[in-house]
Amino acid sequence: MTLEQGATGLDRPARGRLHRLRYRLKIILREPTTIIGVLAAALFAYLIIVPILSLLVDAVQVQFGDERRIKQDVGAFTSYYLERVFSSRISHDMFWEPLRNTLTVAFGAIVLSMLVGGTLAWLLSRSDMFGRRWFATALIVPYMLPAWTFALAWTTLFKNRTVGGQSGWMESLGFTPPDWLSYGQVPVIIILALHYSPFVILLFGNALRRFDSQLEDSARILGASRLTVTRKIILPLMRPALMSAMVLIFAKCLGEFGVPYVLGLPVDFDVLATSLYRNIASRQSGVGAVLAGAIMLIGIITITIDARLMKEARRFVTVGSKGSMNRLSPLGLWRMPATLFAALMFLFSVGLPIATLFLSTVMKVPAQFTFDNFTLDYWIGTDLKTVALTTGILLSPELWNAAWNSLTIVGTASIVSGLLGLLVGYVVARTPVRPLATFLRQVTFLPYLVPGIAFATAYLSLFAVPRGPIPALYGTTLILVLALIADQMPYASRAGISAMMQLGKEPEEAAQVAGAGWLRRMMLIVVPIQKGSLTTGILLPFISGIKGLSLFVVLAVPSTDVLTTYSLRLVDYNYTQAANAVVLIIAALAYFGALLGQKLTRTNLAEGLGS
Amino acid sequence: MPKINLSGVEKNYGGNAANAVADLDLEIGDGEFMCLLGPSGCGKTTTLRMIAGLENLSAGEITVGPRVVDSIAQGVFVPPEKRQMGLVFQSYALWPHLTIERNIDFGLRLRNMPPSDREARVTSVMKTLGIEKYRARYPSQLSGGQQQRVALARMLAVNPEVLLLDEPLSNLDAALRLEMRAELKRLHQEFKTTIVFVTHDQWEAMTLATTIAVMSDGRLQQVGTPNDIYDRPANLFVARFVGNPPINIVELGQENSVLSQNANRFLSPHGGELGAASAIALRPEAIRIARQGDDVPAGVLSGGAQVTGILPTGGSWIIELTCGAEKLFLITHQPPDAEVGEAITYWAKPKALHVFDAAGNRLDAADRLLRPERKLNS
Lengths: 611, 378
Ligand SMILES: Nc1ncnc2c1ncn2[C@@H]1O[C@H](COP(=O)(O)OP(=O)(O)OP(=O)(O)O)[C@@H](O)[C@H]1O
Ligand SMILES: [Mg+2]
Prior knowledge:
The complex is a heterodimer. By secondary structure, chain A is mostly helical.
């Protein structure tokens, strides 16, 4: 094609460029992919970036109600909150002490879960312990249960006279547990370690399974002793997986709210998350913003470290190549004790807490195992002599209201984020505008860097007051749904992107050549093929949403109570049995949801939960 | 029925990559069976996808019949779903969630064909390809060869005017491949469809195509009938790429090469006309051997060599000749009249010679001189 010159006064290359631009624009606008991508990008910018920015701005602006104290107008720049948090009289109680507690709890949990989880991972993947298949699933269960299930079970067992309400089992049996055993640091560490050891089992176990025994063999043949092999070959290769599990546990502990709240309150044991909650509850939004920002910063640093480690880990992937084989080490005499150890861990981390919680809800007096002490009143009784909750929990309209809220809020958010995730995956895989794909990928990953409680604070900061055309959303279910969607986007979009990348574009192109337009292709080809991953993409967030607490505790109000906040409220009022019953319901929902998902998608959801 | 025309087509995937396809002018006639042939990565798939509209152009224009379907200068782009072509992917791209039957009638449903007609059409296409047994199965329950036939059936069902096939036979075993080749050839004759077929298998191209387009490095090297390509390779690349065992190439004017000297001696009487010659090529089957010098006819290219290997390949023999430090390969269908170690004379008729200039392009002057009886169309 030759271009005529002169008529328009443009020279040839310029005209060529113009033509190419026109052609490209035509291509881009021809299909809704790019337009949808732009809309999605705008939506996520609003749901994810704007709240975080708003939070950061709050930290350095005079907040409503503080004008007089700071002697400046609302909205003026101030370093007051920063000083208050980091270098005032109260900063020790508000920030430094909670920071120290957070760090000790996190490191304690890491060490303990590494010991327990590491041993179990090795037993499960490299030894001939009995019942390895069963244990492989059973030992993951603790992660499917809400962490503070354990906290409540712990208080049910070890509660002492420091707090009111029904006494603990130990107390009833005659000995009073000391405070350090009942509350605070020690139980929090133990519980978080039990809760997060499945991480270690999954990550470390996978790495061990991929590890090629031939590498070991070649070192042995060269004359290395067993110890040398472990030190020089196995451990260095395992290091990325171990480090990654550690960083992940740290990041999770950082945002952990429920456990330290239940177990720390009676002895004023504060971590960053509970300190933040306390400030928000007392409407100290400026200080809250600074604290949330600090948590966010620590979170971002840790996850960045993790990303580095994952890159390193990817370099090692080739290690377990196709020829990989792994041999099981015979345990010999230790076979039985090892099995016993695994069984014991299962008992401690699943059996005992669940049994304790359940028994506590059917007994009038704690730990008195006589027949007449059993009752179903706390579940289905009427005319109870308590102040507020005069019926069994199953007959209480508040429970059903909370359950309904949980299902609708979490359900809606999960379905929306699952669909959005697939859409993001589609746009990322298909759009000819690469920067758009990159932006979508990164913006949807952002909430992953921000612990839930800090993210919720960000939402509070943005939506507590009307802004422009958007009314104040605080107190509505909408704010919960939006926050949940944003919070779940990292998982949803990652699932969507990998599903679309795996699918490749050919099945869709085949339909296109056959004459199907965009909408037809979506409805007849893309969505049906991705049914499985869509189900997972909805179910996984649903399960973690149902048992989630830290987002709700900041954003929910009594009328928008969900099961988790409702049971926390019951804890606050010392209705131990009722609270335990609600937690059991939550645990059952999460567990059976996971099982159902596993059945539906024939995959091991537990592994997805680890992410 | 349409004629497809590509003019000045160029494709760049962006970044700093070289052009995947550059400056491509290609005309695919109505009812033609055109093979795009070339080594891996030369841009065959890219070309096919541009014709289908799945890949945008970086420059140039594509027309189908009277209709411009893709043009940068005119700002025209007809999307794939409106081009009414059929495309069989290298990977088949069957829809995993649909049964074979639904895979095949997908296009018919889109065209709102009444159910009874649809049923009849699907059945007849399935019968043709021998897959009616698998009607209710899912793609994952079929073997590679069966899947390939489903992919073909899916496209044939809508009876497209243009059928694009991207190495559809590459995943099949030898026997099935032969069968499918025959099938394709029959389909082409029966439906009179214009077919563009991508392959890097020269055998496949030779047996199937009415026209072959040889590509290398994103550029078109030669377009012609299979005979043309084999008999008159337009340049050294085509000469080397087509033919098995590969063509023997002798560079001219090499002082220390006996083969080169022999060739020079043969060409020297024509020094004037063939001054530009820089290499000659000989197909293995064009070379003969003689035990005695007297058996060599007059006026042929000849020289002495030693037999250093005889490889029977079942029905034919590949003979390795060594001439100084160089080797010549020839193929014969008669039991060879020589033994390993024997000194012989090799010879070849003048019309079997391919002569190329320094740029590697065919020297037409040589053809006029050496192959006077052949019709030339340059
Ligand atoms: N999507 C893409 N992005 C960037 N480069 C590409 C893309 N697709 C192809 N290429 C490059 O373009 C060139 C031509 O590729 P093409 O797929 O057309 O080759 P081909 O001739 O079909 O090869 P094969 O016989 O291996 O299928 C190659 O160098 C390839 O690396
Ligand atoms: Mg290809």
